[in-house]
Amino acid sequence: MGKIRVLICDDSAMVRKILTTELSKDKDIEIIGAVPDPYAARDMIVKEKPDVLLLDVEMPRMDGVTFLQKLMKYYPVRVIIVSSLAEAGSEVAIKAIEYGAIDVMCKPGSMYSVGDMSEQLIDKIKAAACVPESKLKMLAESSALKSRQNPVSSSMIKTTNKVIAIGASTGGTEALKEVLERLPANIPPIVIVQHMPQYFTKAFAQRLDSICQVKVKEADDMEILAPGKALIAPGNRHMQVERSGAVYYARLYDGPLVFHQRPSVENLFFSVAKYAGKNAVGVIMTGMGKDGAAGLLEMRKGGAYTIAQDEESCVVFGMPKEAIELGGVMKIVSLKNIPDAIIEAVSK
Fold it and tell me: How far is residue 169's CA from residue 291's CA, in Å, rounded to a whole number?
């Protein structure tokens, strides 16, 4: 495979320069252009056929989300949204993912170093480049047009001391939505790591909370895990589960990147293995890399029931594949069957 050909579309000359400089340091990436607006990007896309498009959402002449909708309808391409850290920008970026963007990344700024930004963005670009063209149309289908699915049966759920831990990365935002909107309100507590930058996780949690029966929110430090509630690790913070007596709670902390990620699925899974043991259910979903594979194996060794999303339904079959090959997975299922598999596991 040759270099990954990347096109940058951002109205800020400074951002275009930083991204071009940082990404060009990687031997596997070639910047084929850096343009200021969607009209110039459209011409470059038709002419150069980039592997990945980095797209800002707030630009003159045409905003990035409108351009993305048109692009995915007529000329599907792998898109990563590169947005500001502002909360308003993060809400727009989440909407862009619903319209077919593969991932989201924040621009470099005072709260997010250029070094960390470039390292994580390079990983996201490489993950996006692995998404088969055949799955781009699947991503382009707006979730807003999908009818809400009925929750699976909850009559046999046993909530006592159960914890559900889920890890996902590339393609995970829409996959998590499909899973969580089918889980009933009396589901045992859920803890989630989705690789996503700071601020974006809050907007993502709010979006899920508006469509799910379970309460979905960005986790707070020392927050108690409770049935019917799903906690999403904040971007740029690691999250682990701890226990005091019969009460589980979430701990948030800083620390080095793990597999280039913060939050890390690995850290979450290892903590769940330690404190919940056989009372846990672990789920690893679509994503690039190894994050969570060893942690899921540790959960299985501790008696937890472990589930992996299958290759066909994954946007990127990286993390589940690593977990399967390591021996940490007890059941492999399609995305549509993950809610049923979770219910079955917590009903034992």
Answer: 9
Name the CA radius of gyration of the chain, rounded: 19
List the catalytic residue out of 195, 238, 264, 271: 195
The whole-angstrom separation of Cα 167 and Cα 291 is 9
The β-bridge relationship of strands 163-168 and 215-218 is unpaired
Q: Which of 179, 178, 135 is nearest to 311 (CA)?
A: 135
The full 3-state SS of 267-285, as one line of letters, equals HHHHHHHHHCHHHEEEEEC
Q: What is the per-residue pLDDT for 128?
A: 93
Is 291 assigned a catalytic role?
yes
- Respond yes or no: is residue 169 known to be catalytic: yes
Amino acid at 244: S
pLDDT band of residue 260 (cuts 50, 70, 90) is: confident
Q: 177-213 b/e with 16+ CB inside 10 Å = b?
A: bbbbbbbbeebbbbbbbbbbbbbbbbbbbbbbbeebb
| Residue 260: active-site member | no
Q: Are the CB atoms for 220 and 250 separated by under 8 Å?
A: yes
Place of tokens 């909407």: 95
pLDDT in tens, 9-51: 998 899 899 999 999 999 999 999 999 999 999 999 999 999 9
Is residue 76 reached through a cis peptide bond, with omega within 30 degrees of 0 on the bond before it? Answer: no
Q: For the residues 57-62, what does the mean pLDDT come to?
A: 78
Which amino acid would we find at residue 96?
A
Identify the active-site residue in 169, 264, 271, 313: 169
CA angle 249/254/260 to nearest 5° reads 110
The mean per-residue pLDDT over the stretch 167-174 comes to 94
Q: Extract the tokens encoding 279.
A: 């009372």
Residue tagged active-site, from 26, 103, 123, 291: 291
